[in-house]
Amino acid sequence: MVACRAVRGDSGVLSSGTGVAPAISTVFWAVRPANQESRAGRPGYCDSRAGRPCYYDLRTGRTCYMRARFLFGALVLLAFPIHTNLAQIKIGAVTCLTGALSTFGVSSIQGAKLAVADTNAAGGLLGQPVELIVEDNESRAGEAATITRKFIAQDKVVAILGDLTSSATMEAAPLAQAAKVPLLTPSATNIAITKIGDYIFRSCFIDAFTGKIMARFALDRLKAKEAIILTDVKQDYSVGLSDAIRQYFTENGGKIINTISYSSGDTDFRPQLTEVRIARPDVVFLPGYYTEVALILRQAKQLGIVCPIVGGEGWDSPALVQIAGKSADGNYYTNHFSAADPSPRVQKFVQTYYAKYNSLPDALAALWYDGARLLFEAVQRAGSTDPASIRDALASTRDFDGVTGRISIDQNRNASKPGVILEIENGETKMVQEVTP
Amino acid sequence: MDRLIEILQQLVNGVSLGSIYALIALGYTMVYGVLRFINFAHGDIYMLGAYAGYLLAPLFAHIFKFGEFDTFTPENTLFILAGAGLIMILSMAICAVIGVLIERIAYRPLRERPRLNVLITAIGVSLFLQNMTQYRLGANPKAFPQLIPVHVVEGLGNLTVLTSQLAIIISTVILLIVLRFIVMKTKIGLAMRALSLNPTACSIMGVNNDVVISFTFALGSALAAAAGILVSMDSPSINPLMGNLPGIKAFVAAVLGGIGNISGAALGGLIIGILETLVIAIGFPQWRDGIAFAVLIVILLFKPTGILGRVEREKV
Amino acid sequence: MSRGPLSLILALAVCLVVSLFGENFIASKFAYYYDILITIGINIILATSLNLVNGYTGQFSLGHAGFMAIGAYASASWSNHLDPIILGMLGGPGNPLATNIGLFVSMLFAGILAAIAGFGVGVPSLRLKGDYLAIVTLGFGEIIRVAILNTDFLGASRGLSVIGSYTNLFWTYGSVVLCIYVVLGLVHSTYGRGFVTVRDDEVAAEAMGINTTKYKVLAFVVASFFAGIAGALYAHFKAFITPEGFNFFRSVDVVVIVILGGMGSTVGVTVAAVLLTILPEALRALAHTQFVPPAYQGLLENRLILYSLLLIVLMLTRPQGLFGDRGASRKRLSRSRGD
């Protein structure tokens, strides 16, 4: 592990190494306190001209250098995955399990894992069990691309399920397209994603549809003529949805008095809400995430704003009513699914999810459950693990029976499926309307 | 008249926001005074204070009936204040202990080292606190329990002042008075002031520097925790990264007022709070965070010692 | 130990040969390792350039990701808008010579723009020391990020797709070689003496008549130039960039590498860059094996918890990093706080 050379050492940093034990002790070497008393055979700081850690070997009286090669080698060795060679259908799933978006990521992967469990319990895919290889993109930019490369080159997956957010999917999709591996995102809503290529699919509806539902609801049910849109300028989702709402609302006779912006991370929205109060619209559109929406609803109530507020699926979280309390009552939002939906399919899903994870599923869990099952069903229909046939099977998905509704993949590889409009009443959500495309 | 009401309204908003910054800035400034070092992790103590309140409140919920009162009435006011006060004091105590622990483990061994090393350690501590909280308690925002009923204060006409904003302002004033008393009239306060002038002379005079420094950290952390609880009463959504931005803004406030100067920190906090509210009121809400940085750059370029600061000669 | 121009040309030639003959093979058969290799290269450039500012010149900058962002977005915009013209002139996107020249021009533009930004940050920061400088550079990094977030032309919150991911091993490792050459060349010259003097005792330096302004600004400009180049390589590799990818945590990543490697040791920083790029991937693999109980898998993959602990432990036990800094600058480590 150490070499005692004469004073001039060599820099063999890039040689390969073996063994975990030398690696571990070399790691300890790296964090030794400085100026420790050197004893024969123990590493310590010494006054070496080369500036590299070393120690005096008292027995031989020479300066001995530690080499980084073993640490490096051990780590490189660790990066080699341990291949299992069971016959399995491998599907890669990438989402944000740690970091700022971890709650969403955990929900999504729980939904996907439930789908895998259900499928394997029913006999698997093409006679083989499904193996879901889950990777975490740590809510960091750049990771999704690395993980996609790993899935394609290393794990040799049959298809990729992911990512959670639009920006991560935008990184992963070009790589999947270039390698001709089908990729299905169950929750990324940016329109540009499916335009990347014909191997990229989406099993949730896009912002254009959500915006249409919201605007339609305001025009028809709430009989609104004038509206204000509150946009979160830092979030692509909110900006995209605001544009969709504005377009549909104005095209169908409504008038957008003003578009007011806020930023995610803000906690005080009173200046913006004061403007809203002065303008007195019939309805306020709030296509943001529940983290800010909860506070906005509270402060709107405090400032005395009485018109209904309509939002999108970003509202979906139990924390919304927890934080907003009674101020959330009387407002509406669109969603992919409602846990309170009495249909037997949804209730069965809710019960199995609750049994496995001890909590109610949210929309993300439902979306990823459906997305995974849609993917598996396409593989089953394709009859083989050939990527081109899976791609074709995905593209020809019609009326897939999911917990978030009947899903069909349209010619742009986006999903055509119904949405629901929920009303918040007494701290609970109540389904008001189901909207089919 | 309407204009006057609007200006008063924004002033109230600004003062309540500035009070929070002032409380956090006091911690920065006191630590800088005794140790000449910016405690990067201070903003995260503020976050931990809020989380301490979040975790403690359910334990006392059945005694003090948090969340069950809708408005303040003459009968229940004292009771509500007692409950909220208890949670705040407990949270302050917990964060004081955390502050002292951080100082002992991470900063004390580096006291003789160059300041750069301590700065890096402080960054490490800050990141660790944030990410550990994220990992353990979840990254999503949590609902802070309602300690006091939040509603518009009656009798002020068109002026919308919330009980929470009133609580922030009144609590800050009380805490500032207490702090001034401690710093000016007690022996340990005397020791803090002496330490900030000349540590060596202090230890020659028989002061145990370590104890005084620990006390300073405890005091600063307690104030930050109080800020955390107060702000959560107003905006009951807490998340592990909530200390980042207020921490930086409070640092700017401390520098603005003169780093090392306690009145300066309070003044700086108020100014930053009012400036921020002004920027939003004029119509540029997306620059509310940038204004603090702009103030920092301007102050450091033109008057680095701050408004109330003394010029410190660098001895060569 | 200074490399002469001959070593530089030799190293570049090696990179060229490897890239010409091995690139396609590695990129297709070992795509995952290829990704890691390129990321290592980018991290080395970032770390060695930051080392120049933080390590050799002693200016603690926390805003390096801002310069990387400028480089990334500048080169992305350049490529998106001008590549059709440039490539058209040179033979189309299929022509490898054309894409390489296109990338080179794009990188140059990115580096120059980032260097200008570095000048802009360096000059106001002249009077600042230690903690203040850290906060101000952090502020600048955030301002740059927020400015990009508010600019629709650059994609704002949607992010920006980069047409053509042309980054290859030659450009990445060629830039690595160039960066190390320039940094070491500067350091082993009178400029290097200037940098180290500014770090060790600025007042004495001024008293001796050394223009500390010049050295500080030079350090910032050179560092941000290379950060811009790294950003350009990153943008053309990932093919999609968002402002969130260049936030404070990205700066912290680079800072951790510099501290681990030893501030003021280029070799150390390079080794640390390699280690800290491989480490998360190794941990990812480790988390999948049976050795780790599921409860702790999240901890292993939580890079920031590990990095923060690493920072604290390093500062407490081995502040000079893995490879330490050398010679005269050891005085810094034992100098106590003055009265």
What does this structure look like?
The complex is a heterotrimer of chains A (437), B (316) and C (339). With 437 residues, chain A is of the alpha/beta class. Helices cover 39% and strands 19% of the residues of chain A. Chain A has helices at 20-30, 69-78, 102-121, 143-155, 166-178, 207-220, 236-251, 270-279, 290-303, 318-324, 344-357, 363-382, 387-395, and strands at residues 2-3, 54-57, 62-66, 89-95, 130-136, 159-161, 183-185, 200-202, 226-232, 255-262, 283-286, 309-311, 332-335, 400-402, 405-409, 415-416, 419-425, 428-435. In chain A, strands 10-9-11-12-13-17-18 form a seven-stranded mixed beta sheet, sandwiched between helices. In chain A, strands 5-4-6-7-8 form a five-stranded parallel beta sheet, sandwiched between helices. Chain A has a three-stranded antiparallel beta sheet with strand order 1-3-2, with no helix packed on it. In chain A, helix 3 crosses helix 12 and helix 12 (363-382) packs across helix 13. Chain B is built from eleven helices and two strands. The model of chain B has no long low-confidence stretch (mean pLDDT 88). With 339 residues, chain C is mainly alpha-helical. Chain C has one domain: Orthogonal Bundle (ABC transporter involved in vitamin B12 uptake, BtuC). Chain C contains 14 helices and two strands, in the order αααααβααααβααααα. Chain C has helices spanning 5-29, 31-56, 64-90, 96-122, 130-149, 169-187, 190-200, 202-207, 212-238, 248-261, 266-288, 294-301, 303-317, 331-334; strands at 160-161, 240-241. The longest helix of chain C has 27 residues, at 64-90. The model of chain C is unreliable at 327-339 (pLDDT under 50). Chains in contact: A-B, A-C, B-C. The interface between A and C is large, with 50 and 59 residues.
